[in-house]
Specification:
Layout (H helix, E strand, L loop, with lengths): L1 H18 L1 H14 L6 H28 L6 H23 L2 E5 L9 E5 L6 H12 L3 E7 L6 H5 L7 E3 L6 H11 L7 E5 L8 H14 L1 H7 L11 H9 L4 E8 L7 H10 L3 E9 L10 H25 L1
Parallel strand pairs: 1-7, 2-5, 2-6, 3-4, 3-5
Antiparallel strand pairs: 6-7
Helix pairs in contact: 1-3, 2-3, 3-4, 3-11, 4-5, 7-10, 8-9
Amino acid sequence: MRRPITVFGVVFGEILLTALLPVWIIVSLLVDVLGRNWRLPTLRLLCFALLWLWLETFGLIGAASLWVTGQAKNQRANYALQRWWAKQLISSLRITCGLRIEVEGVDQLSNGPLICLGRHASLGDALVSAWIFGSLAQRFPRYVMKKELLFDPCLDVVGQRIPNYFVDRGSAAVRQELTGIRTMAANMADRDVAVIFPEGTRTNDEKRVGLVARLERRAPERHAKLSGLQRLLPPRAAGATALLEEVPTGDVVVMWHVGFDGLDTFAGVRRRIAHAEPSARVVLETHHRSTIPEADKFEAWLDDRWLEIDAKVVRADAERLAN
């Protein structure tokens, strides 16, 4: 039942926004002007919503075309469609919201399959990484994503044709979920990248306080170590460990960023647009496999990396705001 509902919702929203274009432009302008929001955040966000709906439709038409021509199982063709979709969405954010993204570390990516451990702070982290790995690095990313993202029709259709795993974060069958992650990472080739977000959810202050407090009861040593986190959430090592076991030769890429904080809700995006032209910096740091400890020592290694990038995020944010 999910696909008919979500596809209908996208098509209906697209037709509605397109048909009522003059109306919502005038109304959103009035809302922004009367609220003294001279950067017109409401209008710009609605413009992006219209472009997103059209891109969803074009993506679904592309997916249907692959099915009609017998190419639905052609992973290269589906990856090309995903690459186009992600690139156009990033361009739409740039045009409507003024988002500028600076990316570092793509040139230092090593050869062979990669495992990417990403910071999770916004609604668009998976999209941005798909654009980076697909368009800038010319790689083939596969993701561990929450199953709720299946309500995006393009991710639902194309995302299940290529090797992704939509994890059930509330499942009690942890072993089954880890098996799904391992299956997703099986048979990775030299240009493939397995992407996971070890925090498990988008970060904010309330979540960080709650998760760190929970560590005090469950893992006192980790609590003492991670209680100083200022921006990131304590990482979960199980999924990343499963990827390391399944891809024994893969180097690890730690992906962190600044500039996406506060963009975890649409209201947060609107506030950000109202304040200034949004800009972000994404950094990819490659760690050769020989430097990654095995099994029981990996969690401590991951905690150390998270503390390092937490400090880098704090420092980079301070520099960004100062400029």
